[in-house]
Amino acid sequence: QVQLAESGGGLVQAGGSLRLSCAASGRTFSTYAMGWFRQTPGKEREFVAAIAWSGDSTYYAESAKGRFTISRDNAQNTVYLQMNGLKPEDTANYYCASDSLGLSLTQFGDSYYYTEPPVPGYFDVWGQGTQVTVSS
Description:
Elements: E1 4-7, E2 10-13, E3 18-24, E4 33-39, E5 46-51, E6 58-60, E7 68-73, E8 78-83, E9 92-99, E10 106-108, E11 111-113, E12 125-126, E13 130-135
Parallel strand pairs: 2-13
Antiparallel strand pairs: 1-3, 3-8, 4-5, 4-9, 5-6, 7-8, 9-12, 9-13, 10-11
């Protein structure tokens, strides 16, 4: 089973940028869809962005569109979340997760696409999280 380890969190001023990384163990990383979620104390885990195994389909939460970019490097077993224009409301613990069965994707012929926001229940392995704090 894949194991995930996030890094890249920290303290940044509003308007700044951070790039989160999620390193995965195992040789089947390229067959997993991946996602980023975030959570603040007392709130439910919130979807941020997702990417299909080949990287040709992505999906973003409305709060992330235009500011965040998810990408992956299957040769390096790593998925990234580039976050620009950070706001204080982006402060949270950020988690990456793997969807090994592709439950968050919809099949159209031979291709798979995101058609709705993935829910946490579709993801079977989670990292420990990395804290992002945005000061105003």
